[in-house]
């Protein structure tokens, strides 16, 4: 029998993170919950993080069930979607109380709400996949550079410096222009532009980790370097990967919207929030709803992933609590 | 100080070579034919071939690259295919606008971000802190081009205080600078708060207060200079993103800056202009980075004497 179970206060979460949170509140018996159970407990107490999580869930559901939720086909141009002189129609809730076009129409007489719901699909697919690519590349390059040392270290980190010195959006634009924009190219380009940040963070962590005693001990036992990297270093990076895997989605949703706003992102007729704002720009004085609602959708999505990511950072690393 | 400067400039050289090389590779593999773009759609195949030869586009990659770099170093950045104007002239005519917008934006970032961050740290945990940080997070999450259009709608159209775009007078700069700076202000408020909290918890700030210094004197004189350091580092990493944001703001306000020039160049496959604008903005980024390092050296003697 494990004697520590006799006294639940003797061992606390501090075992998982040395400078852990107050032992009284977080104290648990070992074996009761796993590492992720513990993270979940901390996260559940964080009200803003839970708000972020709920928003992320809601937006994901909206994207997933867009075909069911959307009142209309997002590409259908309605005759009554334009005023007699060809202008976009404002919210019908305000004009005649009907739910025909709940937040109005765009310059082609298409239903704005339906387009925003379908736009969520594009945003989330690009945000999640591009970020998966960026985190994978960043972790790979950062950890290899940090762990194996020179000459790989100099080569990879100088390359990272060069990539970071490019004005982010200009590089993305140039790449998209060369490769011709479509959904997969956008994902590829955003991933390729964004990995440098993660590589820097991972590199710094691996530099510190490789000097730790457990690495020396494993090496003394005769383990190969690749084995140490995969089995002992990479698991230590899981918190970083989770946090950046969430926060990065926020940044990438924003990048996709920016590219689409500049007209080199996801191409029409596929509805994308940035593209909708681009179209709305010509009408913002007479039909401000064409700009306001897609922007709110972008802001809410980015906000949700930021909140959740911040909360995860606090939950995974209590020493960082109350930081930004 | 001078050794720091010299070291950073030397380090910048391989970065600049890397940037020019990558940009050149991208252009080289462009599917659109620059010679055809130059000659126009109605030109004959022979004309296009002759132009390709004249522009040196039929040469192997390394010949084209070394020739280009050689000319750039002599100040000859080539002529825009579209406009038939020297690339340097086009770029230099746009620099004042982008510079004004950038400085205006940075001013907004710091003038709003730093005080809010400091106030938030001092009021830690109280409602002012919570509200401030919540608003900051919303500010970070709002797309700059959307903020710009909302500002235009409210303060250019509904309440016509500011012009609806374009450039020319200081009044024209207000809304674009606000748009470029608000997101960053939110970001710096968060950075400043966290940095301040770290420093306020240190022994020397406690000592200063124990010695009887007033709370705000302790905060401003002892904590602030040290708390600024990570914020300055962040500013250095932020520049490429800031310049990216400027591209968007220029589009919203029809601001005749470098970003718009680059966008036009990319849209019209104007090869010398793409190369010129991308390399020039990267130069700006690299040298602002060096400037930031020097500022940091001035603020923090530990960095100045190379113990970092």
Topology:
The complex is a heterodimer of chains A (324) and B (308).
Chain A: H1 23-26, H2 35-45, H3 47-64, H4 66-69, H5 92-95, H6 112-148, H7 152-165, H8 168-179, H9 183-209, H10 213-220, H11 225-233, H12 238-261, H13 273-281, H14 289-316
Chain B: H1 2-28, H2 34-39, H3 45-54, H4 61-73, H5 87-122, H6 127-141, H7 144-158, H8 170-200, H9 203-210, H10 215-253, H11 258-267, H12 271-299, H13 301-304
Helix pairs in contact in B: 1-12, 5-6, 5-8, 5-10, 6-8, 7-8, 7-10, 8-10, 9-10, 10-11, 10-12, 11-12
Task: Please provide a written account of the structure.
The complex is a heterodimer of chains A (324) and B (308). In chain A, 65% of the residues lie in helices and 0% in strands. Chain A has helices spanning 23-26, 35-45, 47-64, 66-69, 92-95, 112-148, 152-165, 168-179, 183-209, 213-220, 225-233, 238-261, 273-281, 289-316. The model of chain A is unreliable at 1-25 (pLDDT under 50). Chain B starts with a helix and ends with a helix. Chain B is 79% helix and 0% strand. By secondary structure, chain B is mostly helical. Chain B contains 13 helices and no strands. Chain B is globular and about 85 Å long.
Question: What key attributes describe this structure?
Answer:
heterodimer; A: 324 residues; mainly alpha; 14 helices; 0% strand; disordered N terminus; B: 308 residues
Proportion in β-strands of chain B: under 5%
Largest interface (C-beta under 8 Å): A-B, 49 and 56 residues
Distance between the termini of chain A: 43 Å
* Average residue pLDDT of chain A: 79
User: Could you give the order of the helices and strands of chain A?
Assistant: HHHHHHHHHHHHHH
* First-to-last CA distance of chain B: 13 Å
Overall strand count of chain B:
0
The profile of the biggest β sheet of chain A is: none
What's the helix-strand series of chain B?
HHHHHHHHHHHHH
Low-confidence stretches of chain B: none
Major sheet of chain B: none
Shape of chain B: globular
Structural class computed from helices and strand pairing of chain B: mainly alpha
């Amino acid at each position: 029998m494990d004697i520590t179970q006799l006294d639940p206060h003797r061992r606390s979460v501090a075992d998982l993170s040395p400078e852990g949170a107050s032992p009284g509140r977080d104290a648990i018996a070992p074996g009761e919950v796993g590492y992720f159970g513990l993270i979940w407990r901390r996260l559940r107490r964080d009200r803003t993080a839970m708000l972020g999580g709920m928003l992320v869930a809601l937006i994901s559901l909206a994207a997933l069930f867009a075909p069911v939720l959307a009142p209309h086909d997002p590409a259908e141009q309605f005759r009554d979607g334009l005023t007699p002189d060809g202008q976009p129609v404002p919210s019908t809730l305000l004009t005649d109380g009907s739910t025909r076009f709940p937040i109005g129409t765009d310059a082609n007489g298409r239903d704005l709400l339906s387009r925003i719901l379908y736009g969520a699909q594009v945003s989330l697919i690009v945000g999640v996949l591009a970020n998966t690519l960026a985190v994978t590349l960043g972790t790979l390059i950062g950890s290899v550079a940090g762990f194996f040392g020179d000459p790989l270290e100099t080569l990879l980190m100088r390359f990272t410096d060069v990539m970071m010195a490019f004005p982010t959006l200009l590089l993305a634009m140039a790449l998209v222009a060369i490769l011709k924009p479509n959904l997969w190219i956008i994902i590829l380009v955003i991933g390729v532009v964004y990995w440098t940040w993660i590589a820097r963070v991972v590199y710094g962590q691996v530099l510190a980790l490789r000097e730790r005693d457990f690495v020396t001990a494993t090496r003394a036992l005769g383990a190969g370097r690749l084995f140490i990297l995969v089995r002992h270093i990479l698991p230590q990076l899981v918190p970083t990967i989770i946090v950046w895997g969430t926060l990065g989605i926020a940044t990438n949703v924003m990048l996709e919207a920016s590219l689409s706003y500049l007209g080199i992102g996801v191409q029409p007729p596929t509805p994308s929030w940035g593209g909708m704002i681009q179209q709305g720009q010509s009408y913002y004085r007479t039909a401000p709803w064409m700009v306001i609602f897609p922007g709110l959708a972008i802001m809410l999505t980015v906000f949700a992933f930021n909140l959740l990511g911040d909360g995860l950072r606090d939950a995974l690393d209590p020493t960082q609590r109350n930081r930004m | 100080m001078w050794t720091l400067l010299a070291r950073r400039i030397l380090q910048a050289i391989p970065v600049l070579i890397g940037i020019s090389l990558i940009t050149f590779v991208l252009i080289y593999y462009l599917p659109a034919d620059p010679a055809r773009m130059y000659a126009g759609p109605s030109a004959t195949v022979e004309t296009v071939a002759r132009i390709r030869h004249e522009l040196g586009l039929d040469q192997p990659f390394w010949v084209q690259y070394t020739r280009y770099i050689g000319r750039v170093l002599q100040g000859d950045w080539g002529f825009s295919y579209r406009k038939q104007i020297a690339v340097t002239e086009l770029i230099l005519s746009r620099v004042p606008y982008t510079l004004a917008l950038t400085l205006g934006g940075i001013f907004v970032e710091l003038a709003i971000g730093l005080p809010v961050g400091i106030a938030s740290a001092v009021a830690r945990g109280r409602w002012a802190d919570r509200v401030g940080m919540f608003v900051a997070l919303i500010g970070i999450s709002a797309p700059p081009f959307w903020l710009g259009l909302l500002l235009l709608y409210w303060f250019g159209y509904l309440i016509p205080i500011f012009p609806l775009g374009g450039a020319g007078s200081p009044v024209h700069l207000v809304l674009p600078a606000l748009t470029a700076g608000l997101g960053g202000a939110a970001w710096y408020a968060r950075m400043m708060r966290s940095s301040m909290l770290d420093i306020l918890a240190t022994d020397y700030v406690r000592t200063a207060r124990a010695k009887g210094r007033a709370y705000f004197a302790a905060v401003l004189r002892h904590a602030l200079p040290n708390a600024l350091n990570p914020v300055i580092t962040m500013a250095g990493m932020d520049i490429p993103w800031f310049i990216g944001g400027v591209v968007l703001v220029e589009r919203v306000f029809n601001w005749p800056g470098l970003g718009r020039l680059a966008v036009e160049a990319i849209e019209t496959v104007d090869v010398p202009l793409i190369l010129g604008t991308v390399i020039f903005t990267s130069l700006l980024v690299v040298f602002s980075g060096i400037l930031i390092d020097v500022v940091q050296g001035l603020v923090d003697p530990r960095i100045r004497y190379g113990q970092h």
